[in-house]
Amino acid sequence: MDLTIRTASTEDFPEISAVDSASFGEHFSDEELSDALTLIDPARFLVAVDGERIVGVTGDYPFTMTVPGGTLDVPGVTWVSVDPTYRRRGILRELMHRQLRNFADAGVAAAILTASEGGIYGRFGYGAASATRKTVIDRHRATLSAPTDTGMVERVTGARARELLPDIHRRWRAQTPGALNRVEPWWDYLMLDREAHRGGMSALFHLVHADGYISYRVKTDWNDGHPKHLCWIADYVTVTSEAHAALWQVLLGLDLFGSIESYRMPDDDPLPHLLTDARQVRTTAIADGLWVRPIDVASMLAARSYAVDVEAVIEVRDDLFGDGRYLLRGGPEGATSERTERAPDISLGVSALGSVYLGGVRLETLGRAGKAAADDPAQLTRLDRALLADRTPVHGTGF
Questions:
Q1: Region 58-82: what's the mean pLDDT?
Q2: Is the pTM of this model over 0.85?
């Protein structure tokens, strides 16, 4: 095998899409590839080439991610795939390591991704920092304990939604750790609403409040005259509690529907507490959500605020970039971080730091799992409390 790794070009993407299709079991139509290319900068993609044949790929999209007390510019790693006939030859490792070194050379503080399988990316220093869960609500049994005013909720067309949703999403993102920005091409892409992306369901319906929205699809089931359609939430954003309650009042009042399902409801969503029976919001599956890979640890630690004042030397073990010790001084107003030679108060692996960074995974939990350690348990407890966020992390945009 004569393997080389190079930057991709636009002309490579028919072959890149063929590799990706073979890896994930989904064929790209010409229309889908054309749509995807509206989001892609080929200079941000790497291909592994054997002779003239592309046998592996990885790329990224530029995002701004909300972190507690601030934001961080991050590459969102995507399109990671290797030709099925070239597996177990180290191609994925070479691509991922080259990509991470390129990120480091560009001064990137951290990288993110979402994983098709949970066992792949930990060995490259990524840590699962948030979770997604599938929720199922029996519409007939779920009733709000205090009905609310729905006068500000409007059903709008796709064209009108394209005008209204970006500003609401921007305000939601500002208060949600892990949330990713959507530039105009992302909104254009999402609102194309191609049939191939509907999973056999309807085109999108949009319910919009001045401070929130729910976009959903419908899978009809007339059930021999006893309708039990499925309402599938595709996008879900609420900025205020008033918008949240009003939108759910409308959604739970839809006739002909049997269940409301999604992967969009965060663990701290208040809906169960608004119902007469909280059990009607059932979680049927839980999986990892956003993965975070620290690269410039000092910059990453300094980019966020901390729930309580903390000063600690954190030793981070990193097989790719080398171990380092970082003096963190932080609090609710911000933080500073710099390399130091002082003895560490806390020691953990780079993937563990990625997991706790957004406040969705407890440092003390990782300590009990043997993935973080401190000579003084009080230091671990203090940093654990400092890392907590006001809300559960949600990335909100699939990539």
A1: 98
A2: yes
